[in-house]
Specification:
The protein is built from five helices and four strands, in the order H-H-H-E-E-E-H-E-H. The chain is of the alpha+beta class. Helix 3 runs parallel beside helix 5. The N and C termini lie far apart (about 50 Å).
């Protein structure tokens, strides 16, 4: 395999050809971050499935590997328990919300539902536990 310098790879316009050559460092980094984000979502999804089997909660988690068929900007996890709703959006560290995701989260806040971003399954579990116990959530989950 030929290794080309970054300044040459970045000039290749065809994305397929650039990918075949290994892509730019920024593209490789973004791809790795996305893979990690999906792994964290899978861990959290397993936790929620366990809690659903115990009749503690219900949840919605659109398939992250396909184009959305629900509202654009919908959060990764919408969790419901005892007449309340919690919305969590997973992001890789450094990841940013899209405008439609920001609007969705604002709408949840306006409806009185806590919503926000988490960066890994452990943080998601911490927020979920506080919410289920009706304890105070971190400031970033308030408008």
């Amino acid at each position: 395999m030929t290794i080309l310098p970054e300044h040459i790879i970045s000039k290749i316009a065809d994305p397929a050809e650039r990918a075949r050559l290994g892509g730019t460092a920024a593209e490789a980094s973004a791809k790795a971050a996305r893979r990690q984000e999906l792994k964290e979502q899978a861990i959290f999804d397993a936790l929620l499935r366990f809690k659903r089997e115990q009749n503690i909660l219900t949840f919605t988690h659109p398939r992250p590997d396909r184009a959305t068929t629900i509202q654009v900007g919908h959060v990764d996890f919408m969790i419901r328990a005892r007449g309340r709703c919690l919305s969590l959006e997973f992001k890789a560290p450094g990841g940013r919300l899209t405008e439609s995701q920001e609007q969705f989260i604002q709408a949840e806040w306006a409806a009185g539902n806590p919503a926000g971003v988490v960066y890994n399954a452990a943080e998601g579990h911490q927020i979920l536990t506080l919410w289920l116990n009706q304890e105070t959530l971190p400031e970033k989950f308030h408008q």
